[in-house]
Amino acid sequence: QVQLVESGGGLVQAGGSLRLSCAASGRTFSSYVMGWFRQAPGKEREFVAAISWSSMSRYYADSVKGRFTVSGDNAKNTTYLQMNSLKLEDTAVYYCAADRSYAITVRDSDYDYWGQGTQVTVSS
To answer: Is 97 helix (H, G, I), strand (E, B) or coil?
Structure first.
């Protein structure tokens, strides 16, 4: 059993930065894929980024590539989403999720555990 607690959201000006954290408890994440998703008002939930703990490979949505970085600290059982050069279009509720697999997937239905979400609002 895995529990995920997300934090770090808030209000930021366009062009600024935020770092989201996702703390896991209940077991280790050595065989997990950790993903980040977001959902804006009136829109579908979309994939943002993911990292595989086994291979240390990373994958990003085209909309955030070059601006966002996903990373992890295994000793702290915590994953991070560093968001730079934020745009108005990045405003959404951000969720972290864990997939009990070795291969990265962008399908939200493949993920087994989810955090509560944290609001990110980008202003002009």
So the answer is: strand
